[in-house]
Every structure is written in C-alpha cells, then in structure tokens.
Description:
Number of strands: 0
Largest sheet: none
CATH class: Mainly Alpha
CATH superfamily: Phosphate transport system protein phou homolog 2, domain 2
Strand content: under 5%
Low-confidence stretches: none
Helix content: over 70%
Shape: globular
Mean pLDDT: 92
Number of domains: 1
Amino acid sequence: MAILFKTTKELEAQIDQFLDSISQGGMVFKAAVGNFLDDDWADFGQRRSQLDELEEKADDLRRIVETKLYTQTLIPEHRGDVLGLLESTDNVIDAMKDTLNQFDVEKPYIPEELKKAFIELTEVSVQAAEVLVSAIRAFFTDLPAVKDHLHKVYFFENEADRVGDNLRRQAFAMKMELSQKFHLRYFSMHIQNVSDEAEDVADRLAIYSIKRTI
C-alpha cells in the first residue's frame, strides 16, 4: 500500500488484515452453504462460528483503522474515502453472517433439484466479493488496475442476478406449497445480497478511483 500510505506500516498491515477477513469470510460462507445442503450440521455449525469470528475481527480492525486515521491525521485528503470504503466493505461480510444465521434459525427445506442452483448462486456471489477485495487492494497499491477488477465484480453480480432469477423461476414452477416457494425465494435473495453489497462497494470504489486521478 506504499502509494497511498507512506508513513505507517502498521496501518497498512491492519487494512490488509481487514481485507483478509473479508476474503476468508467468503470462503467460509461458501463452504458453510455447501455443508447445509449436504445436511452436515457439525461442519455447518463450526463454519458459522468461524464466520462470526471473522466478522467480529473485521469490525474491530475497521474501528482501529478509523481511529488512527482521525487521531493521527493520516492521509487527510483521502481519509473520508477510505473510511467510506471500509464501512461499506464491512457490509459484505455482514451479509454473509446474516445469511448463515438465517439458515441456522429457519433451516429451509431445499429440494434436491435446486441444490445445484443454490451452490452456483453461492459461488458467483462469493466470487463478486473476492474480486472486490482484489480491487480494493489495487486502490491502495496499483490504481490503474482497479478498473480491471471492477468489471469482474459487475460480471459476477450480473451472474448472481441471472442464476438467482433462474432458481426462483424453477422453484415457483415446482409442485410444492406456496409458503415453501416463498421460503426458497427468501433464501436465494439472501445469498444474492452478498453480490449486491459487493456491487455497492464497487460503485463507491469507481468514484474514489476517479477522484485520485484528478
């Protein structure tokens, strides 16, 4: 992060750790959804707890960085953008945590015919988050590369929209209670929300990147 942070290696390391937590959260989230679909309750519970810990770690790191940016008057010209970026990125792992908690509480019945679609939806949603992390790292170290990553975020978000829409169409065409169909829609949209949050951060990042070139 030498381009933006020239005064403190500690701050640089803490932002890296924050982004690592988001990236690791995506991997844990994807594995946990797979555990749920396989009725592997032991591993699902373990990974849900792991994601809770990663989300708490991300929150703590965000607060530490925010405090340092203000109290040490670091990068004042970019401070607001960095704070906004961290806060909105935190929403991505929050969405993952909330989704797993809802799976744990409500334990939706997912027909065998829809499990592949749920796996695909989870994968593309997490890919949007993973590429977002790469884009944010580039914002601090290699500004011209941000655009290359952002278009991938948008691609995977659009893929999540497509897969989610197909999943819901398939669910509502099946012979089951309407309440079950609504439940499936609800959970598909919960998973899809991860990519939506990633897209929101990407929109912010695109603006912040332009500001840094002016």
